[in-house]
Amino acid sequence: MNATEEDNQDDVRRIAESAKRFGFEIKEEDARRWLKSISDDSSSSEIVVDANSGAFGARVAMLDFSPSELERFRKIGKIVEVTSDDPNVESALAISGSAAQSKIQSYPGDCDYFQRLNIKAPTREEASATMARLMRETALGHLQGPTFQFLEAKLGSYPFDGAHNGKPVSKGSPVSWTPEEVQAGSLELDGPDGRVTFTWDEAAQDPGWCKLDWVVSDPERGQLANASNVIDVTWESPDGEIVSLDGYLDAFFQEVYLDAEDVPMFTKIAKHVSSDALDEYVERLQGEVRKYLTHHLNYGKAAKRMYNVFRLSGQHLEAAYIRELFDEPTTILYQVWSLITTLDNATGAGSSIPIEDVQNQADALILEVIKALEGDEETEIVKSLLRLRTTLENQKEGTERESEVEAARAQVINVVNTFFRDRLNGMPTIKSYIEEVQGAGAH
Description:
Blueprint: H1 3-21, H2 28-40, E1 47-49, E2 56-58, H3 59-62, H4 70-80, E3 89-96, E4 111-120, H5 124-141, E5 144-145, E6 148-157, E7 162-164, E8 167-169, E9 174-177, H6 179-184, E10 186-191, E11 194-199, H7 200-204, E12 210-218, E13 223-236, E14 242-244, E15 255-257, H8 263-270, H9 277-293, H10 299-312, H11 316-325, H12 332-346, H13 355-372, H14 375-393, H15 399-424, H16 428-441
Parallel strand pairs: 4-13
Antiparallel strand pairs: 1-2, 2-15, 3-4, 3-15, 5-6, 6-9, 6-12, 7-8, 7-10, 10-11, 12-13, 13-14
Helix pairs in contact: 1-2, 1-11, 2-11, 9-10, 9-16, 10-11, 12-13, 12-15, 13-14, 14-15
């Protein structure tokens, strides 16, 4: 046994002791294997192709990927992917977030997708117009069906402070488009000079954050999920220059791409990612950690982002500890919290998702709560979910529905926060990190 392996043995024993104090066990052999794998090669930008599944991604991302759910993600991907038969449009679709970490996240949240879309065109304006047309065609082509319901699109930035559909909006923030607005190709904004019409084509010239959202159903599994596709669009000019249409070419450290045939296109685009991309990506994640540990308290979301911060910044022992938390039965409550919103989306006015699928998913959530909890916590959350189930079955709208959705989510997130807060603080170095973040956030 070499020195590194001996260090890993000692490190794993230390985190196992921390875990034991909080009533959960670490799979020590798995933890040692992961620490060895992530320490063997510090180059997190190396691209790895899984020969059996055809999936590929950065080596550090592939360490946490399991192909067991890949066909399901490919099936949903046919709904969310922006596609074109035009040879001047190149695409590579990936899963991201907890969906791409299926080896460790037994209870992932939503089905998050990320798409590289490269458009060859004579001008930037033509590339933007093509992108907008393709996004709209995708949304309109998948507005609703027995297994999917389109929810909204993000395209463009609000041109001023004002209101949209009665809600305040800020200049420069992403524009949200309802299905009806996408169909119309325009929306109405209330601004300083009265009501104005803002068109889809206008939004496309400064696209900003591009995203499409659905709720999807898998009847065979009895599962519902929110499925989103964040689209990173680039323009390839006639001289071969590649430019991101939103001004920032995203890094690729948490994406697993679904088709090895897309490697050449991905490689071409990845060459243009900033040499500081890893540092910038970690910095953005740290900003999200600060948000979820201070002003928008959610220790579950903070833990998921802390894991990525730690594994990408060399704090592998802390990452290994959090990695084990994701497999604890109580963490399914994070998925329950996420799926309450999915149930709400699936039963909105005009939804095509069969009510039987909603009922099955609600029943499954109740059973998971019963398995994960006991005592008063279990009783109160089950009561809340049963009330919510009845409200959603009757497809009631208005304040009663909103209050019951929020009540159920609040009860579940309270348990999730307590679970993650206690166990994250169980490891001294992570506790110090949290205290430092929260101390800075208080000023």
